[in-house]
Write a structure and sequence with these properties.
By secondary structure, this protein is an alpha/beta fold. The protein is 44% helix and 16% strand. The strands form three sheets. Strands 3-2-1-4-5-6-10 form a seven-stranded parallel beta sheet, sandwiched between helices. A three-stranded mixed beta sheet has the order 7-9-11. Helix 6 links the parallel strand 5 and strand 6. Bound molecules: nicotinamide-adenine-dinucleotide (NAD) and 2'deoxy-thymidine-5'-diphospho-alpha-D-glucose. The site of nicotinamide-adenine-dinucleotide has 30 residues, from helix 1, strand 2, helix 4, strand 5 and strand 7.
Length: 351
């Protein structure tokens, strides 16, 4: 079996669902259930004995060690993290705690477990760390996309904490020989994404007639990847990646934020022809330290692991919008008091 951390979050729950759709290998899912973790994402597995959910913290060494001893997983996929850049600007402490210290403690427990495995199990074991393109910093408009050799220049507390965790993972390979893999992926979108991130926030706000807050001039560029493509890239890297290597994952879909928001407005209009969603767009103060552009060169994973995204942005964004339109109860349920507090804090002054 495999151990997935953060498997009740956006990418984690998509990964667990996708994994069990493709294979009968069991998944232990360790998740703290922070505001971003949601067991409703996994309700289709509630009667499925292949999914074992455990509420807990990757930073709780004794719990992690006990889980490893009990279930003897052949691999760990580390997705648990604080993941929202704006929250890291308002309060970095949780990011340091989970992304740096949590990853460190998870590595310690993993190393102690791995060291005692027999030689075949030791050789076959993998620790796959899911990271981000944000560790590479910001690109100017005409600079080439990030390769795996690009230097680390993280600019936000979030990306600095992820960069830190990447360095720790690398060091556990270099120093102790732990068979690690690191993936650095661009912006994901798709079902179950918490509506604090750009795409679901815009869909959810538009559907309730609220302003669509675009930071600054909206010309910041991100590369967008449909979440199930990220899941297939993680599976492929686990299967065929070389220990100690890092793999960039991207969708070859660079787009300015304003274009994303305009596309969402246009697609929603197909379902609500009488509503003028574009008039809801409102430029607001920019994010402090806002990275101007990310772009991923995904040639290495394509060439060495034969992975390519299956979705285009045009197909993925349609699927995403349909998912939110068809799952309005999920949206209502996640918009708790704590969510409203976050919206008031980050978008103070917006109606
Ligand atoms: P998310 O915020 O939706 O989910 C994170 C999950 O981790 C939640 O279920 C949360 O409860 C859990 N968690 C948080 N702290 C924990 C802890 N200490 N112990 C155990 N569980 C904990 O995040 P996401 O968007 O699904 O991102 C998952 C991973 O992928 C993160 O490591 C993130 O840095 C990385 N990533 C995300 C994107 C993206 O666009 N969302 C892109 C590239 C990489
Ligand atoms: O690049 C990968 C990263 O993508 C992941 O590592 C992060 O976990 C994930 O959150 C995401 O980070 P971003 O900061 O790029 O994503 P976000 O959805 O928060 O913002 C996308 C862009 O949209 C960014 O340029 C900021 C802008 N934005 C965002 C929000 C929430 C707005 O203009 N308005 C908004 O209200």
């Amino acid at each position: 079996m495999i151990l997935v951390t953060g498997g009740a979050g956006f990418i984690g729950s998509n990964f667990v669902l996708d994994w069990l759709a493709q294979s009968d290998e069991k998944v232990i899912n360790l998740d703290k259930l922070t505001y971003a973790g949601n067991l409703r994402n996994l309700s289709s597995l509630s009667q499925d004995s292949r999914h074992i959910f455990v509420q807990g913290d990757i930073g709780d060494s004794s719990q992690v060690s006990q889980l490893l001893a009990q279930y003897q997983p052949r691999a760990i996929i580390n997705l648990a993290a604080e993941s929202h850049v704006d929250r890291s600007i308002h309060g970095p402490a949780d990011f340091i705690q989970t992304n740096i210290l949590g990853t460190f403690r998870l590595l310690e427990a993993t190393h102690a477990y791995w060291r005692e495995l027999d030689s075949t199990a030791k050789q076959n074991f993998r620790f796959l760390h899911v990271s981000t393109d944000e560790v590479y910093g910001s690109l100017a408009k005409n600079e080439p996309a990030f390769t795996e050799e690009h230097c680390y220049q993280p600019n936000s507390p979030y990306s600095a904490s992820k960069a830190s965790s990447d360095h720790l993972v690398r060091a556990y390979h270099h120093t102790y020989g732990l068979p690690v893999l690191t993936t650095n992926c661009s912006n994901n979108y798709g079902p179950f994404q918490f509506p604090e991130k750009l795409i679901p926030l815009m869909i959810v706000n538009a559907l309730t007639g609220k302003p669509l807050p675009v930071y600054g001039d909206g010309q910041q560029i991100r590369d967008w990847l449909y979440v199930t493509d990220h899941c297939s890239a993680i599976r492929r890297t686990l299967e065929a990646g070389i220990p100690g290597e890092t793999y960039n994952i991207g969708g070859w879909n660079e787009k300015p934020n304003i274009e994303i928001v305009q596309t969402i407005c246009a697609l929603l209009k197909e379902s609500y022809p009488d509503t003028d969603f574009h008039s809801l767009i409102k430029h607001v103060d920019d994010r402090p330290g806002h990275d101007r552009r990310y772009a991923i060169n995904a040639t290495k994973i394509e060439r060495e692991l034969n992975w390519r995204p299956a979705e285009t942005f045009a197909s993925g964004i349609r699927k995403t919008i349909h998912w939110y339109l068809n799952n309005q109860q999920w949206v209502t349920d996640v918009q708790t008091g704590a969510y409203q507090e976050w919206i008031s804090k980050n978008y103070a002054g917006l109606p």
